[in-house]
Amino acid sequence: MNLVEKVKEEVVNIAHTIYKEALVFETWGNVSSRPTESQVVITPSGIPYENLHFVDMVVVDIDGEVEQGRWKPSTELPLHLAVYKARKDIKAIIHTHSIFATAFAVSRQDIPVVIEDLAQVVGGPVRVADYAQPGSNELALNAVKALGQEGNAVLLANHGLVVLGKDLSTALQRCRVIERNAQIIVWSKLLGSSFILEPEEVSLLRKKYLFDYGQKEQGIKNETV
Length: 225
Ligand SMILES: [Zn+2]
What we know:
Elements: H1 3-20, E1 30-36, E2 39-42, E3 58-61, E4 66-68, H2 77-86, E5 92-96, H3 99-107, H4 116-121, E6 127-129, H5 137-147, E7 153-156, E8 160-165, H6 168-191, H7 199-211
Parallel strand pairs: 6-7
Antiparallel strand pairs: 1-2, 1-5, 2-3, 3-4, 5-8, 7-8
Helix pairs in contact: 2-5, 3-6
């Protein structure tokens, strides 16, 4: 199996996982990863997740020309390509419509850091990009602008969440952690106020996670992107 085929398999597996975990529904949301600097494997447009197979994955070049696949790529291809062009450190993107993160996107409120896991694996609050229509170049530009060179995730106003990673498993973990953090904030508001962690504390938690967490003696390193 060559690298492109391996990445196709990873993308389809992640697509099934986010569907099973209700981070997406029906045909909305999309997943991509780039096996090389100039190629992107992305889910097709409008195919239900349950019916998605390895052979349905679409391979495009970095300018969006289809190289392999029988379907049209996701309508959010411009967003994926714009992020890859802006961020050489990124190899995977997951776009979800998960409910609690999307509630923040609809309220056009950043998701603040209230628990350690968001500080650790995302490294800060999840910002909201300016509104633009789904699938538009403007949406892609707004997302890239809000992400900057450091952001690992961004909310699309009145739409959903986009998460980046050096690989798909890192991006998936971030999707889960962001959704959980968003849900906890909503529930905590029923009990009164939510106390938000100070930026200095968030930064310390992130550093500890990057340099101290896990089994260093066995050579396991944490995410550095
Ligand atoms: Zn979407």
